[in-house]
Task: structure prediction
Amino acid sequence: MKDAAIGIFDSGVGGLTVLRALAERLPGESFLYLGDTARLPYGTKSAETVSRYAVQAAAALVKRRVKLLVIACNTASAVALPALQAAFADIPVIGVVAPGAQAAVEAAPDGPIAVIATEGTVRGGAYARAIHARAPHIEVLQQACPLFVPLAEEGLTDGDLAAAVARHYLEQMRKAAPKCLVLGCTHFPALKAVIASAMGPGVALVDSAATTAMAVERQLKSSGALRDGGAPAIQFLVTDAPDRFARVSRIFLGAPVDPGAVEPIDLQ
Amino acid sequence: MKDAAIGIFDSGVGGLTVLRALAERLPGESFLYLGDTARLPYGTKSAETVSRYAVQAAAALVKRRVKLLVIACNTASAVALPALQAAFADIPVIGVVAPGAQAAVEAAPDGPIAVIATEGTVRGGAYARAIHARAPHIEVLQQACPLFVPLAEEGLTDGDLAAAVARHYLEQMRKAAPKCLVLGCTHFPALKAVIASAMGPGVALVDSAATTAMAVERQLKSSGALRDGGAPAIQFLVTDAPDRFARVSRIFLGAPVDPGAVEPIDLQ
Result:
Protein backbone atom coordinates (compact mmCIF):
# COMPACT_ATOMS: atom_id res chain seq x y z
CA MET A 1 0.00 0.00 0.00
CA LYS A 2 3.02 2.35 0.27
CA ASP A 3 2.63 3.46 -3.33
CA ALA A 4 -1.09 4.04 -3.05
CA ALA A 5 -2.29 7.65 -3.11
CA ILE A 6 -3.47 9.66 -0.13
CA GLY A 7 -7.20 10.36 -0.55
CA ILE A 8 -8.41 13.88 0.21
CA PHE A 9 -12.10 14.57 0.47
CA ASP A 10 -13.71 18.01 0.46
CA SER A 11 -17.13 19.48 -0.27
CA GLY A 12 -15.62 21.43 -3.16
CA VAL A 13 -12.59 23.62 -3.80
CA GLY A 14 -11.65 24.90 -0.32
CA GLY A 15 -9.86 21.66 0.59
CA LEU A 16 -7.22 22.51 -2.00
CA THR A 17 -5.57 24.61 0.74
CA VAL A 18 -5.07 21.31 2.61
CA LEU A 19 -3.87 19.51 -0.53
CA ARG A 20 -1.32 22.28 -1.04
CA ALA A 21 0.09 21.90 2.50
CA LEU A 22 0.20 18.10 2.12
CA ALA A 23 1.98 18.23 -1.25
CA GLU A 24 4.53 20.67 0.18
CA ARG A 25 5.24 18.53 3.25
CA LEU A 26 5.10 15.15 1.49
CA PRO A 27 6.48 15.81 -2.01
CA GLY A 28 7.03 12.09 -2.75
CA GLU A 29 3.39 11.10 -2.19
CA SER A 30 0.58 10.87 -4.74
CA PHE A 31 -2.80 12.43 -4.01
CA LEU A 32 -6.34 11.73 -5.16
CA TYR A 33 -8.60 14.69 -4.38
CA LEU A 34 -12.40 14.45 -4.49
CA GLY A 35 -14.56 17.62 -4.42
CA ASP A 36 -18.31 17.03 -4.06
CA THR A 37 -19.04 20.06 -6.23
CA ALA A 38 -22.54 18.91 -7.23
CA ARG A 39 -23.74 19.13 -3.61
CA LEU A 40 -21.63 21.91 -2.09
CA PRO A 41 -21.67 23.77 0.22
CA TYR A 42 -21.85 21.51 3.27
CA GLY A 43 -21.67 24.36 5.79
CA THR A 44 -25.38 25.21 5.70
CA LYS A 45 -26.62 21.61 5.70
CA SER A 46 -27.67 19.29 8.52
CA ALA A 47 -25.24 16.92 10.25
CA GLU A 48 -27.23 13.93 8.95
CA THR A 49 -27.02 15.05 5.32
CA VAL A 50 -23.32 15.97 5.60
CA SER A 51 -22.55 12.56 7.14
CA ARG A 52 -24.39 10.73 4.36
CA TYR A 53 -22.61 12.72 1.66
CA ALA A 54 -19.20 12.32 3.31
CA VAL A 55 -19.52 8.54 3.60
CA GLN A 56 -20.60 8.26 -0.07
CA ALA A 57 -17.66 10.42 -1.18
CA ALA A 58 -15.11 8.61 0.99
CA ALA A 59 -16.36 5.27 -0.40
CA ALA A 60 -15.50 6.46 -3.92
CA LEU A 61 -11.93 7.24 -2.78
CA VAL A 62 -11.55 3.96 -0.87
CA LYS A 63 -12.75 2.05 -3.93
CA ARG A 64 -9.77 3.52 -5.78
CA ARG A 65 -7.43 2.08 -3.11
CA VAL A 66 -6.14 5.08 -1.17
CA LYS A 67 -3.87 4.29 1.82
CA LEU A 68 -5.15 7.07 4.08
CA LEU A 69 -8.14 9.42 4.03
CA VAL A 70 -7.87 13.13 4.82
CA ILE A 71 -11.18 14.88 5.49
CA ALA A 72 -10.18 18.37 4.37
CA CYS A 73 -13.66 19.86 4.83
CA ASN A 74 -14.03 21.34 8.32
CA THR A 75 -17.80 20.81 8.37
CA ALA A 76 -17.46 17.12 7.43
CA SER A 77 -14.60 16.70 9.95
CA ALA A 78 -16.72 18.37 12.63
CA VAL A 79 -19.90 16.34 12.16
CA ALA A 80 -19.01 13.14 10.24
CA LEU A 81 -15.62 11.91 11.47
CA PRO A 82 -16.98 9.15 13.76
CA ALA A 83 -19.24 7.88 10.96
CA LEU A 84 -16.31 7.91 8.53
CA GLN A 85 -13.94 6.14 10.92
CA ALA A 86 -16.59 3.48 11.57
CA ALA A 87 -17.33 3.00 7.86
CA PHE A 88 -13.66 2.75 6.83
CA ALA A 89 -12.02 1.02 9.78
CA ASP A 90 -9.27 -0.50 7.61
CA ILE A 91 -7.45 2.75 6.84
CA PRO A 92 -6.55 5.81 8.91
CA VAL A 93 -9.10 8.64 8.58
CA ILE A 94 -7.72 12.05 9.61
CA GLY A 95 -9.91 15.15 9.96
CA VAL A 96 -8.82 18.78 10.20
CA VAL A 97 -10.50 19.72 13.47
CA ALA A 98 -8.11 17.99 15.90
CA PRO A 99 -4.96 19.31 14.13
CA GLY A 100 -6.51 22.80 14.04
CA ALA A 101 -7.36 22.67 17.74
CA GLN A 102 -3.81 21.48 18.48
CA ALA A 103 -2.34 24.43 16.57
CA ALA A 104 -4.61 26.85 18.42
CA VAL A 105 -3.70 25.53 21.88
CA GLU A 106 0.01 25.76 21.00
CA ALA A 107 -0.47 29.36 19.81
CA ALA A 108 -2.50 30.44 22.86
CA PRO A 109 -2.00 28.01 25.78
CA ASP A 110 -4.05 30.19 28.14
CA GLY A 111 -6.66 31.37 25.65
CA PRO A 112 -9.04 32.87 24.87
CA ILE A 113 -9.32 31.13 21.49
CA ALA A 114 -11.75 32.33 18.85
CA VAL A 115 -13.08 29.97 16.17
CA ILE A 116 -14.68 31.15 12.94
CA ALA A 117 -16.34 28.52 10.76
CA THR A 118 -19.49 27.57 8.84
CA GLU A 119 -22.95 27.38 10.44
CA GLY A 120 -22.72 23.58 10.62
CA THR A 121 -19.27 23.50 12.25
CA VAL A 122 -20.24 26.13 14.85
CA ARG A 123 -23.54 24.38 15.63
CA GLY A 124 -21.77 21.04 16.14
CA GLY A 125 -19.25 22.52 18.58
CA ALA A 126 -16.44 20.13 17.57
CA TYR A 127 -13.68 22.76 17.78
CA ALA A 128 -14.63 23.74 21.33
CA ARG A 129 -14.64 20.06 22.35
CA ALA A 130 -11.27 19.42 20.69
CA ILE A 131 -9.71 22.49 22.35
CA HIS A 132 -11.15 21.59 25.75
CA ALA A 133 -9.87 18.01 25.41
CA ARG A 134 -6.37 19.53 25.27
CA ALA A 135 -6.85 22.47 27.66
CA PRO A 136 -10.12 22.42 29.65
CA HIS A 137 -9.52 25.87 31.13
CA ILE A 138 -9.42 27.77 27.83
CA GLU A 139 -12.31 30.07 26.96
CA VAL A 140 -13.55 29.38 23.41
CA LEU A 141 -15.56 31.89 21.37
CA GLN A 142 -17.33 30.85 18.16
CA GLN A 143 -18.73 32.80 15.21
CA ALA A 144 -20.27 31.48 11.97
CA CYS A 145 -19.12 33.48 8.93
CA PRO A 146 -21.11 32.02 6.02
CA LEU A 147 -20.52 34.89 3.55
CA PHE A 148 -16.76 34.26 3.61
CA VAL A 149 -17.31 31.12 1.49
CA PRO A 150 -18.89 32.75 -1.59
CA LEU A 151 -16.61 35.79 -1.18
CA ALA A 152 -13.54 33.56 -1.43
CA GLU A 153 -14.99 31.54 -4.33
CA GLU A 154 -15.64 34.75 -6.25
CA GLY A 155 -12.03 35.81 -5.66
CA LEU A 156 -13.17 38.86 -3.64
CA THR A 157 -10.45 38.24 -1.08
CA ASP A 158 -9.32 41.81 -0.57
CA GLY A 159 -10.80 45.25 -1.18
CA ASP A 160 -13.56 47.19 0.55
CA LEU A 161 -16.24 44.54 0.27
CA ALA A 162 -14.19 41.76 1.91
CA ALA A 163 -13.11 44.20 4.63
CA ALA A 164 -16.72 45.23 5.29
CA VAL A 165 -17.85 41.59 5.59
CA ALA A 166 -14.92 40.80 7.93
CA ARG A 167 -15.79 43.77 10.15
CA HIS A 168 -19.45 42.72 10.20
CA TYR A 169 -18.65 39.25 11.51
CA LEU A 170 -15.66 39.99 13.72
CA GLU A 171 -16.55 43.25 15.48
CA GLN A 172 -17.90 41.51 18.60
CA MET A 173 -15.12 38.90 18.59
CA ARG A 174 -12.43 41.58 18.45
CA LYS A 175 -13.86 43.14 21.64
CA ALA A 176 -13.36 39.81 23.45
CA ALA A 177 -9.62 40.12 22.68
CA PRO A 178 -8.76 36.48 21.86
CA LYS A 179 -5.08 35.53 21.65
CA CYS A 180 -5.66 33.18 18.72
CA LEU A 181 -8.22 32.89 15.93
CA VAL A 182 -8.82 29.52 14.24
CA LEU A 183 -9.73 29.72 10.53
CA GLY A 184 -12.14 26.80 10.87
CA CYS A 185 -13.15 26.53 7.20
CA THR A 186 -10.85 25.75 4.29
CA HIS A 187 -12.08 28.84 2.43
CA PHE A 188 -10.99 31.28 5.11
CA PRO A 189 -7.18 31.25 4.57
CA ALA A 190 -7.90 33.01 1.24
CA LEU A 191 -9.26 35.93 3.32
CA LYS A 192 -6.45 35.91 5.90
CA ALA A 193 -5.35 39.52 5.31
CA VAL A 194 -8.78 41.12 5.78
CA ILE A 195 -9.53 38.84 8.75
CA ALA A 196 -6.23 39.83 10.42
CA SER A 197 -6.98 43.48 9.80
CA ALA A 198 -10.50 43.19 11.27
CA MET A 199 -9.15 41.45 14.40
CA GLY A 200 -6.34 43.93 14.97
CA PRO A 201 -2.77 43.22 16.12
CA GLY A 202 -1.78 40.56 18.68
CA VAL A 203 -4.08 37.78 17.44
CA ALA A 204 -2.39 34.67 16.02
CA LEU A 205 -4.29 33.28 13.02
CA VAL A 206 -4.05 29.50 12.64
CA ASP A 207 -5.54 27.14 10.12
CA SER A 208 -5.55 23.37 9.98
CA ALA A 209 -3.67 22.84 6.72
CA ALA A 210 -0.08 22.74 8.01
CA THR A 211 -0.86 20.82 11.22
CA THR A 212 -3.01 18.33 9.31
CA ALA A 213 -0.06 17.69 6.97
CA MET A 214 2.12 17.04 10.04
CA ALA A 215 -0.47 14.64 11.47
CA VAL A 216 -0.61 12.74 8.16
CA GLU A 217 3.19 12.49 8.02
CA ARG A 218 3.31 11.20 11.61
CA GLN A 219 0.65 8.59 10.86
CA LEU A 220 2.39 7.35 7.70
CA LYS A 221 5.78 7.18 9.44
CA SER A 222 4.43 5.30 12.44
CA SER A 223 2.74 2.70 10.23
CA GLY A 224 5.67 2.42 7.80
CA ALA A 225 3.47 3.61 4.93
CA LEU A 226 5.51 6.63 3.87
CA ARG A 227 6.33 6.33 0.20
CA ASP A 228 10.00 5.84 -0.63
CA GLY A 229 10.20 6.28 -4.40
CA GLY A 230 8.28 6.58 -7.64
CA ALA A 231 6.80 9.54 -9.44
CA PRO A 232 4.25 11.53 -7.43
CA ALA A 233 0.95 12.45 -9.08
CA ILE A 234 -2.09 14.56 -8.23
CA GLN A 235 -5.49 13.63 -9.64
CA PHE A 236 -8.84 15.30 -9.17
CA LEU A 237 -12.36 13.89 -9.06
CA VAL A 238 -15.45 16.11 -9.00
CA THR A 239 -19.19 15.42 -8.90
CA ASP A 240 -20.23 18.42 -11.05
CA ALA A 241 -18.76 19.60 -14.37
CA PRO A 242 -14.97 20.20 -14.17
CA ASP A 243 -14.82 23.74 -15.61
CA ARG A 244 -15.92 25.77 -12.57
CA PHE A 245 -13.71 23.63 -10.28
CA ALA A 246 -10.69 24.21 -12.53
CA ARG A 247 -11.39 27.95 -12.69
CA VAL A 248 -12.01 28.56 -8.96
CA SER A 249 -9.24 26.19 -7.80
CA ARG A 250 -6.55 28.76 -8.57
CA ILE A 251 -7.70 30.87 -5.57
CA PHE A 252 -7.04 28.01 -3.16
CA LEU A 253 -4.26 26.01 -4.77
CA GLY A 254 -2.17 29.00 -5.83
CA ALA A 255 -1.78 27.45 -9.28
CA PRO A 256 -4.20 26.63 -12.07
CA VAL A 257 -5.62 23.12 -12.51
CA ASP A 258 -5.89 21.77 -16.06
CA PRO A 259 -9.60 20.93 -16.62
CA GLY A 260 -8.37 17.83 -18.47
CA ALA A 261 -6.86 16.49 -15.21
CA VAL A 262 -10.26 16.67 -13.50
CA GLU A 263 -12.50 13.62 -13.83
CA PRO A 264 -16.25 13.95 -13.24
CA ILE A 265 -17.81 11.08 -11.25
CA ASP A 266 -21.32 10.30 -10.02
CA LEU A 267 -21.78 9.49 -6.31
CA GLN A 268 -25.53 8.84 -6.39
CA MET B 1 -57.72 16.86 -11.20
CA LYS B 2 -59.30 20.25 -10.28
CA ASP B 3 -58.81 19.59 -6.58
CA ALA B 4 -55.20 18.46 -6.96
CA ALA B 5 -52.52 20.79 -5.64
CA ILE B 6 -50.28 23.01 -7.74
CA GLY B 7 -46.70 21.72 -7.42
CA ILE B 8 -43.97 24.30 -6.90
CA PHE B 9 -40.35 23.28 -7.22
CA ASP B 10 -37.37 25.33 -6.06
CA SER B 11 -33.75 24.67 -5.16
CA GLY B 12 -34.48 25.84 -1.60
CA VAL B 13 -36.24 28.74 0.09
CA GLY B 14 -36.16 31.51 -2.55
CA GLY B 15 -39.12 30.06 -4.44
CA LEU B 16 -41.33 30.96 -1.50
CA THR B 17 -41.58 34.44 -3.06
CA VAL B 18 -43.33 32.72 -5.99
CA LEU B 19 -45.52 30.62 -3.67
CA ARG B 20 -46.56 33.82 -1.91
CA ALA B 21 -47.64 35.49 -5.19
CA LEU B 22 -49.49 32.33 -6.26
CA ALA B 23 -51.33 31.98 -2.95
CA GLU B 24 -52.37 35.63 -3.10
CA ARG B 25 -53.66 35.41 -6.69
CA LEU B 26 -55.23 31.94 -6.35
CA PRO B 27 -56.50 31.78 -2.76
CA GLY B 28 -58.73 28.75 -3.41
CA GLU B 29 -55.91 26.51 -4.65
CA SER B 30 -53.76 24.08 -2.65
CA PHE B 31 -49.99 24.09 -3.05
CA LEU B 32 -47.28 21.46 -2.60
CA TYR B 33 -43.86 23.13 -2.40
CA LEU B 34 -40.61 21.17 -2.74
CA GLY B 35 -37.28 22.76 -1.80
CA ASP B 36 -34.16 20.73 -2.71
CA THR B 37 -32.36 22.02 0.37
CA ALA B 38 -29.87 19.13 0.52
CA ARG B 39 -28.36 20.13 -2.82
CA LEU B 40 -28.84 23.92 -2.99
CA PRO B 41 -27.73 26.27 -4.41
CA TYR B 42 -28.32 25.52 -8.09
CA GLY B 43 -26.95 28.85 -9.33
CA THR B 44 -23.27 27.82 -9.27
CA LYS B 45 -23.81 24.34 -10.73
CA SER B 46 -23.65 23.07 -14.32
CA ALA B 47 -26.72 22.91 -16.58
CA GLU B 48 -26.43 19.10 -16.69
CA THR B 49 -26.46 18.74 -12.90
CA VAL B 50 -29.29 21.25 -12.47
CA SER B 51 -31.38 19.44 -15.11
CA ARG B 52 -30.82 16.08 -13.42
CA TYR B 53 -31.77 17.46 -10.00
CA ALA B 54 -34.82 19.31 -11.37
CA VAL B 55 -36.21 16.22 -13.10
CA GLN B 56 -35.72 14.12 -9.91
CA ALA B 57 -37.47 16.77 -7.81
CA ALA B 58 -40.33 17.29 -10.24
CA ALA B 59 -40.88 13.51 -10.36
CA ALA B 60 -41.44 13.53 -6.59
CA LEU B 61 -44.14 16.20 -7.00
CA VAL B 62 -45.78 14.48 -9.98
CA LYS B 63 -45.88 11.22 -8.01
CA ARG B 64 -48.04 13.06 -5.47
CA ARG B 65 -50.49 13.98 -8.26
CA VAL B 66 -50.11 17.72 -8.76
CA LYS B 67 -52.18 19.25 -11.59
CA LEU B 68 -49.56 21.76 -12.74
CA LEU B 69 -45.86 22.27 -12.09
CA VAL B 70 -44.35 25.69 -11.39
CA ILE B 71 -40.54 25.84 -11.65
CA ALA B 72 -39.96 28.68 -9.20
CA CYS B 73 -36.16 28.49 -9.38
CA ASN B 74 -34.83 30.84 -12.07
CA THR B 75 -31.73 28.71 -12.68
CA ALA B 76 -33.78 25.54 -13.18
CA SER B 77 -36.27 27.44 -15.38
CA ALA B 78 -33.37 28.84 -17.41
CA VAL B 79 -31.53 25.57 -18.06
CA ALA B 80 -33.95 22.68 -17.41
CA LEU B 81 -37.39 23.71 -18.70
CA PRO B 82 -37.21 21.72 -21.98
CA ALA B 83 -36.05 18.60 -20.09
CA LEU B 84 -38.88 19.03 -17.56
CA GLN B 85 -41.54 19.59 -20.22
CA ALA B 86 -40.33 16.50 -22.08
CA ALA B 87 -40.25 14.36 -18.92
CA PHE B 88 -43.71 15.46 -17.71
CA ALA B 89 -45.66 15.93 -20.94
CA ASP B 90 -49.00 15.11 -19.27
CA ILE B 91 -49.22 18.27 -17.15
CA PRO B 92 -48.43 21.94 -17.80
CA VAL B 93 -44.92 22.93 -16.66
CA ILE B 94 -44.50 26.69 -16.19
CA GLY B 95 -41.12 28.33 -15.54
CA VAL B 96 -40.43 31.83 -14.28
CA VAL B 97 -38.19 33.08 -17.11
CA ALA B 98 -40.87 33.67 -19.76
CA PRO B 99 -43.23 35.50 -17.35
CA GLY B 100 -40.28 37.60 -16.09
CA ALA B 101 -39.24 38.48 -19.63
CA GLN B 102 -42.86 39.42 -20.45
CA ALA B 103 -43.01 41.75 -17.42
CA ALA B 104 -39.72 43.36 -18.43
CA VAL B 105 -40.80 44.01 -22.02
CA GLU B 106 -44.05 45.55 -20.78
CA ALA B 107 -42.12 47.79 -18.36
CA ALA B 108 -39.53 48.90 -20.96
CA PRO B 109 -40.81 48.27 -24.52
CA ASP B 110 -37.78 49.98 -26.07
CA GLY B 111 -35.15 48.81 -23.57
CA PRO B 112 -32.45 48.64 -22.52
CA ILE B 113 -33.33 45.85 -20.08
CA ALA B 114 -30.87 44.71 -17.41
CA VAL B 115 -31.02 41.19 -15.96
CA ILE B 116 -29.37 40.20 -12.68
CA ALA B 117 -29.31 36.50 -11.83
CA THR B 118 -27.12 33.57 -10.73
CA GLU B 119 -23.99 32.45 -12.59
CA GLY B 120 -25.91 29.56 -14.17
CA THR B 121 -28.83 31.68 -15.37
CA VAL B 122 -26.55 34.34 -16.86
CA ARG B 123 -24.33 31.73 -18.56
CA GLY B 124 -27.37 30.02 -20.11
CA GLY B 125 -28.70 33.30 -21.58
CA ALA B 126 -32.37 32.25 -21.28
CA TYR B 127 -33.60 35.71 -20.21
CA ALA B 128 -31.96 37.40 -23.21
CA ARG B 129 -33.53 34.81 -25.54
CA ALA B 130 -36.97 35.20 -23.94
CA ILE B 131 -36.79 39.02 -24.17
CA HIS B 132 -35.60 38.93 -27.78
CA ALA B 133 -38.38 36.48 -28.69
CA ARG B 134 -40.82 39.23 -27.67
CA ALA B 135 -38.83 42.30 -28.80
CA PRO B 136 -35.78 41.52 -30.95
CA HIS B 137 -34.60 45.16 -30.98
CA ILE B 138 -34.14 45.49 -27.20
CA GLU B 139 -30.63 45.70 -25.81
CA VAL B 140 -30.17 43.23 -22.90
CA LEU B 141 -27.44 43.58 -20.24
CA GLN B 142 -26.66 40.73 -17.85
CA GLN B 143 -24.82 40.55 -14.53
CA ALA B 144 -24.35 37.56 -12.20
CA CYS B 145 -24.77 38.55 -8.52
CA PRO B 146 -23.95 35.37 -6.58
CA LEU B 147 -23.41 37.03 -3.18
CA PHE B 148 -27.02 38.24 -3.12
CA VAL B 149 -28.15 34.65 -2.41
CA PRO B 150 -26.32 34.09 0.91
CA LEU B 151 -26.90 37.73 1.89
CA ALA B 152 -30.67 37.23 1.57
CA GLU B 153 -30.57 33.84 3.35
CA GLU B 154 -28.73 35.42 6.26
CA GLY B 155 -31.39 38.13 6.46
CA LEU B 156 -28.81 40.83 5.64
CA THR B 157 -31.27 42.54 3.31
CA ASP B 158 -30.60 46.13 4.28
CA GLY B 159 -27.79 48.03 6.00
CA ASP B 160 -24.30 48.97 4.89
CA LEU B 161 -23.15 45.50 3.90
CA ALA B 162 -26.06 44.82 1.53
CA ALA B 163 -25.65 48.31 0.06
CA ALA B 164 -21.91 47.74 -0.52
CA VAL B 165 -22.53 44.41 -2.28
CA ALA B 166 -25.26 45.98 -4.44
CA ARG B 167 -22.95 48.85 -5.44
CA HIS B 168 -20.18 46.34 -6.23
CA TYR B 169 -22.34 44.38 -8.68
CA LEU B 170 -24.44 47.19 -10.14
CA GLU B 171 -22.03 50.09 -10.61
CA GLN B 172 -21.30 49.24 -14.29
CA MET B 173 -24.93 48.40 -15.00
CA ARG B 174 -26.12 51.72 -13.61
CA LYS B 175 -23.87 53.54 -16.09
CA ALA B 176 -25.62 51.75 -18.97
CA ALA B 177 -28.88 53.41 -17.79
CA PRO B 178 -31.36 50.54 -18.34
CA LYS B 179 -35.07 51.39 -18.16
CA CYS B 180 -35.89 48.11 -16.40
CA LEU B 181 -34.02 45.67 -14.17
CA VAL B 182 -35.18 42.03 -13.94
CA LEU B 183 -34.66 40.38 -10.55
CA GLY B 184 -33.80 37.05 -12.17
CA CYS B 185 -33.38 35.00 -9.00
CA THR B 186 -36.05 34.31 -6.39
CA HIS B 187 -33.74 35.54 -3.64
CA PHE B 188 -33.34 39.02 -5.09
CA PRO B 189 -36.79 40.52 -4.25
CA ALA B 190 -35.66 40.36 -0.58
CA LEU B 191 -32.93 42.89 -1.51
CA LYS B 192 -35.20 45.13 -3.63
CA ALA B 193 -34.59 48.31 -1.63
CA VAL B 194 -30.77 48.22 -1.78
CA ILE B 195 -30.87 47.17 -5.45
CA ALA B 196 -33.18 50.09 -6.29
CA SER B 197 -30.92 52.47 -4.41
CA ALA B 198 -27.79 51.19 -6.20
CA MET B 199 -29.47 51.57 -9.61
CA GLY B 200 -30.79 55.07 -8.94
CA PRO B 201 -34.18 56.55 -9.93
CA GLY B 202 -36.00 55.81 -13.19
CA VAL B 203 -35.33 52.05 -13.31
CA ALA B 204 -38.39 49.78 -13.05
CA LEU B 205 -37.61 46.66 -10.99
CA VAL B 206 -39.58 43.58 -12.04
CA ASP B 207 -39.56 40.05 -10.74
CA SER B 208 -41.27 36.94 -12.06
CA ALA B 209 -43.49 36.14 -9.08
CA ALA B 210 -46.60 38.18 -9.96
CA THR B 211 -46.45 37.49 -13.72
CA THR B 212 -45.86 33.78 -13.09
CA ALA B 213 -48.98 33.71 -10.91
CA MET B 214 -50.91 35.35 -13.78
CA ALA B 215 -49.55 32.78 -16.24
CA VAL B 216 -50.61 29.93 -13.93
CA GLU B 217 -54.11 31.41 -13.54
CA ARG B 218 -54.43 31.79 -17.32
CA GLN B 219 -53.35 28.17 -17.87
CA LEU B 220 -55.76 26.77 -15.27
CA LYS B 221 -58.66 28.82 -16.63
CA SER B 222 -58.03 27.82 -20.24
CA SER B 223 -57.94 24.12 -19.35
CA GLY B 224 -60.88 24.32 -16.94
CA ALA B 225 -58.68 23.19 -14.04
CA LEU B 226 -59.23 26.16 -11.73
CA ARG B 227 -60.45 24.90 -8.39
CA ASP B 228 -64.01 25.88 -7.48
CA GLY B 229 -64.34 24.89 -3.82
CA GLY B 230 -62.80 23.03 -0.89
CA ALA B 231 -60.33 24.09 1.75
CA PRO B 232 -56.97 25.28 0.42
CA ALA B 233 -53.78 23.89 1.98
CA ILE B 234 -50.06 24.53 1.71
CA GLN B 235 -47.61 21.69 2.33
CA PHE B 236 -43.84 21.70 2.24
CA LEU B 237 -41.34 19.00 1.24
CA VAL B 238 -37.59 19.41 1.76
CA THR B 239 -34.59 17.19 1.06
CA ASP B 240 -32.51 18.32 4.08
CA ALA B 241 -33.60 18.71 7.72
CA PRO B 242 -36.66 20.98 8.13
CA ASP B 243 -35.32 23.36 10.80
CA ARG B 244 -33.16 25.67 8.66
CA PHE B 245 -35.86 25.79 5.97
CA ALA B 246 -38.48 26.79 8.52
CA ARG B 247 -36.18 29.43 10.02
CA VAL B 248 -35.01 31.04 6.76
CA SER B 249 -38.41 30.83 5.05
CA ARG B 250 -39.73 33.83 6.97
CA ILE B 251 -37.47 36.14 4.92
CA PHE B 252 -39.10 35.04 1.66
CA LEU B 253 -42.64 34.08 2.63
CA GLY B 254 -43.21 37.04 4.95
CA ALA B 255 -44.62 34.67 7.58
CA PRO B 256 -43.10 31.86 9.63
CA VAL B 257 -43.46 28.23 8.56
CA ASP B 258 -44.19 25.66 11.27
CA PRO B 259 -41.34 23.08 11.16
CA GLY B 260 -44.01 20.44 11.80
CA ALA B 261 -45.64 21.28 8.42
CA VAL B 262 -42.36 20.52 6.61
CA GLU B 263 -41.81 16.91 5.53
CA PRO B 264 -38.27 15.69 4.77
CA ILE B 265 -38.00 13.43 1.70
CA ASP B 266 -35.12 11.68 -0.06
CA LEU B 267 -34.73 12.22 -3.81
CA GLN B 268 -31.73 9.96 -4.36
